[in-house]
């Protein structure tokens, strides 16, 4: 059961203001069991005006797109409760859809990042999709090929932490199914796996460099897998993304590829 809740951008970029804004919502018993997903229109009036063009309420249109059309699983989207919780827990990185109007329809081309209870700026939708796929919150992930598409699905991940000569590395091994559409299945399996790894590593490194955001959300696993790191970063968590190297490794179980 999904309900859409649109927030002005100012509430997300100012965590103190957001906390005071959302507290009354959480205290309303009638909203306790609703799944609320925040969206961020650049211009709320322009977004809501699309109801006439769509022939239905914008909220209903978005609900249909998110729940029945998108490959992204609904648990990928933060609820009001999870945003509020992260202000105290400060463990996870959440991605909130930023809704604008494109071709007279609501569209999501960027996501606002809420990193361990604090705003961390905007990332492209493609980066958010990689984060969702890495965390098994997306059914299928597509990478463009020269003459077709590499489709990856059913992802699970394994994250290991290591340190050598003062360099800390987070190795993220993704196990998934894979197939190729549009090229007759002529690609080399090894080359395709390396292509996927290279694409993911470049995407992750770019977001980490520009926004200090880890698409794998490895920080939340420190407590159980790297206790020493966990205790250290409790005091300086803002340094985590600057001090670790995120490395993707992709292992594909091929479907219909010789």
Structural class: alpha/beta
Q: Residue-averaged pLDDT, rounded?
A: 79
- Molecular shape: globular
How much beta, percentage-wise? 25-35%
Portion of residues within helices: 25-40%
Radius of gyration: 20 Å
- Note the total helix count: 11
Termini separation comes to 42 Å
Oligomer: single chain
**Which strand order spans the largest sheet, edge to edge or round the barrel?**
6-7-8-9
Unreliable spans: 29-42
Structure description:
With 258 residues, the protein is an alpha/beta fold. The chain has eleven helices and nine strands. The protein has helices spanning 9-13, 15-26, 44-48, 50-54, 58-69, 80-89, 125-134, 189-211, 222-225, 227-233, 240-243, and strands spanning 2-6, 35-39, 93-102, 105-115, 118-124, 140-145, 148-164, 167-181, 244-254. It has a four-stranded mixed beta sheet with strand order 6-7-8-9. A hairpin with a 2-residue loop joins strand 7 and strand 8. Helix 2 (15-26) packs across helix 6. The chain starts with a strand and ends with a strand.
Topology:
Elements: E1 2-6, H1 9-13, H2 15-26, E2 35-39, H3 44-48, H4 50-54, H5 58-69, H6 80-89, E3 93-102, E4 105-115, E5 118-124, H7 125-134, E6 140-145, E7 148-164, E8 167-181, H8 189-211, H9 222-225, H10 227-233, H11 240-243, E9 244-254
Parallel strand pairs: 1-2, 8-9
Antiparallel strand pairs: 3-4, 4-5, 6-7, 7-8
Helix pairs in contact: 2-6
